[in-house]
Automatic annotation (TrEMBL), chain A:
Reaction it catalyzes: 4 Fe(II)-[cytochrome c] + O2 + 8 H(+)(in) = 4 Fe(III)-[cytochrome c] + 2 H2O + 4 H(+)(out)
Family affiliation: Belongs to the heme-copper respiratory oxidase family.
EC number: 7.1.1.9
Keyword RNA-binding: no
Gene Ontology terms, MF aspect: cytochrome-c oxidase activity; heme binding; metal ion binding
Domain of life per record: Bacteria
PANTHER family in UniProt: CYTOCHROME BO(3) UBIQUINOL OXIDASE SUBUNIT 1, CYTOCHROME C OXIDASE SUBUNIT 1
Pathway involvement of the protein, from the record: Energy metabolism; oxidative phosphorylation
An example Gene Ontology CC term for this record: plasma membrane
Name of the protein this chain belongs to: cytochrome-c oxidase
Protein localization: Cell membrane
Transmembrane spans: 36-54, 74-99, 119-141, 161-187, 199-225, 245-270, 282-304, 316-342, 354-378, 390-412, 424-445, 465-491, 582-615, 635-654, 666-684, 690-711, 723-742, 754-776, 797-819
Domain Cytochrome oxidase subunit I profile: 20-529
Amino acid sequence: MKAIRLHRDLTRIWGNEPGWRGVFSSVSHTDLGKRFVVAAAVFFGIGGVLAMLIRAQLATPESAFAGPEVYGQIFTMHGSIMMFLFAIPMLEGLAIYLLPKILGARDLAYPRLTALGWWCYLFGGTIMILALLGGVAPDAGWFLYPPLSGKEYTPGVNSDVWLLGITFVEISAMCAAIEIVVTILKFRAANMGLTRMPIMAWYLLATAGMMVFGFPPLILGSILLEVERAFGWPFFQPEFGGSPLLWQHLFWLFGHPEVYIIFLPAAGALSTIIPVMARTPLIGYGAIVTAVMALAFLSFGLWVHHMFTTGIPHMALGFFSAASVLVAIPTAVQIFAWIGTIWAGRPKFTLPMYYILGFFVVFVLGGLTGVMLAIVPFDQQAHDTAFVTAHLHYVLVGGFVFPMLAAAYYWMPHATGRTRVMRLGIAAFWLIFIGFNLTFLHMHLTGLLGMPRRVYTYPAEAGWTWLNLISSIGSFMQAFGFGLFAIDIALQRRIGNHARRDPWDAETLEWAMPIPPTQYNFASLPTVDSREPLTRDRKIGAGLAAGKGLLGRAIDKRRETLAVDMVTGAPEHVAILPGPSLLPLFTAMVIGGFFLSMLLSLYWLTPLFVVGTAIMVWRWAGTTGTTRDPGPIDVGAGVMLPTSFAVGGSVGYWGSVLASAANGTLFASLVFGYFFLWVVAPNWPPPGEYGAYLLEPLLITAAAALALLGARMGQYDFGQASVGSALAAIGLALAIGGLLWAALHHLPGPTEHAFAAVGWVLTSYAIFSAAVGLLTQCFVRRRIASGHANAAWPHEFRIAAVWSDYGAGVTIVVAWLLALSGDAL
Amino acid sequence: MLGGSAILSALVFALLLVALFRRGVADRKTPERKRVWIGWLGLGMPIAVLMVLLAFALSVGERNLPTGPAARTIDVRAYNYGWEFCDEDGRCSEGMLRIPAGQPVDLDITSSDVIHSLWIPRLAGKMDAIPGQVNRLRIEASVPGTYEAVCAEYCGIGHANHRFVVEAYDIGESVAAGGTAP
């Protein structure tokens, strides 16, 4: 009976608000994760329809189905949707839904940030689809190379839709990345040390870490290209000292890690499902973790293999070629660990297993053609031909779609509490698998016979007619397969039989809860002593539901979950999470206003939305924290822990550190761009006088030093904190003034030369960072006055220091970078 | 590479098939055979294969680089949508590149608008035509004849038909006919 009362109380605390309001204010990771997955599946359908149009057009030579203008939009949107609106959000949705459940927590680290990410994704994706329906979709290829995507050659709004829509969606990727890392490091079951984490957590940690460092170059590139298009700042125009290759570097600096960002969560699903289906533990946990980390690291060193034909010297290409080949090794480690696991066990031929076998066939072939393409002389022939189209589909469909289909069948009983109904899933598998290979296997040959990518037509005498026709037939077969899959999933959701708890005899904690899951996940939180807690004790779920674990009680409206030491997993503090809120929705709307004002060229409105966003974030931050800390609380088993208000290393602090790391990557990419243009672009050095001054950077450094000092004063003596934050704010304000002064006196107009354009972007970025720091210091000063921050709870004070130190650091670097250019070099 | 890939994929698929139909023990207590799966198959085999492949690739790549002087150098300018070829004497032509057969020719490639990529599949790999930058590509047609060439980088609505032809002529015949090389 205790279990039922506990369930009722926890549902009251963790449930959504009633009615429609609850839909908009939900911050539940279960709801939001499912929304991400469903929306991504819808976008996959839209992208799939576009693929059908491409195949319809290419089925015959000289086809009159679509003209080149329409075809440009179709293939650009097919690629963009599949990458940005399907693959990334799908993996985010999987992570958002699963993570707290496999780690033994009740929610993610920042529930409202999850909701903000969801709304940004939905709005950004909607902008893209509306543009497609309106016939003004992006049409310069999903890589959007300037100058083709620039104002001169794409005068319409098409490229802006891509730059602004995708950047809007990327906000959700950055939110998810930070949230996933912090959740994995802090919100785990008691005693779940790093080496006891389920393997999926390692994969997602690597993925999210890559997103933190991989997305900023793309976001920076998009900002620069949009500013060039909107205001004529010539970053990519060689006649004014820009370089179109800068875009390619920034784009692929994101674009290659992106492939592994997509692959790793899918591989994580495989590493989770294969041992369950083989009824034996995964072989080589440590080796796989090492391989995954190696992949994450290596993937940042091979972006140039997308640029083997841009005229880069051969020895430099050799380096990137070697790095590209090396990634095959950690991938091989995983493949053989999986086969070895199946070898050791006695596999069950369940439906997920079909898709896993499909994965092996398709992905191994894609990996081998990938090694071929890493070889420079081969790539120079095959680059930009249908061979590459075939290769990338083998890798992405094999490495992501097949594992995700397996994952869908594996976790459907968890999300719906139902088992599958008919043998439709097997028919769907064969249609997809045969259709896929019929589309893409001989497309390698089509490419080697000379068919380039992205052509809307080809002459009959080229000899590619039969090959293309077969591809088109195969693609329609695939489409039927995916349609059947969708029907099967819908049937399972509607009329499937109720599944028993843990239907697969799985090993991870998400199955130690009733299915479909409750809003609070676990009525009490587990303590683990092995990597496979369910193997040790199949009844663990019943005990947790009866409240025999930690935090198995309901107090007021307080949403509690356990935060642990990052390495050992020892219980550290009780995190108190925020409840339902409309703030994420409203904040996303204001951010959307910013993007729409840019898209519609209503530039006078844009500053209003920037200020509006700042106000929303201020209000958001104002609703965290408390003035009445309950003090150390009993978590059960006689353990007393402090709350998140009273610890220094709260999730808010670690999130700020990670946000600064992402921010720093963006800044580093900008500095890279500055030096890249200086060294590589034509028409440098810029004409006229610039740089070579000392007074301004010295003064700015002094002001920034004041900010650094002020932010520290309260750390030693909290009595000084209020004065210190005032000093820090004044220091940052002075630094902003100094930066503006220096730019106005020493930089030419931003439209005159790429140097001036980059100089103004550096200055604007430094001013922005300093302004953020200034606002956080003002905020924390008010919080000290209102009693939210004090000597016992220095938490907000430490967070403010992270942001203001970052702003101060950036101003110093930018001031010297610009002052020491020109004659000083 | 095709043969190597075929052998490797056959190996993986064979292992997978045996693994599937072999009766394992499934008692969750069997010692892991890490040395075989991770050590030999996961690490050893790919490292060995890839080192050989890389060494081969680097040597082929170096051999493809231009060595020694070219018989002539031609400036190529790509634009939306055409190709212009100018020789050392400043004589230009459009849409047709004439080169002597059996002699190395350097193409200095650039673009006057967006990025294109010059590809003569039967003569050489691709080289991008990038505004503000000149990329050199060496080609050599060993026998006289016509060779089709296409643009390999998406350059807008005319991309599919952004083509030209290379005509390699026999130097002996050309001189015998009393003409000079164009």
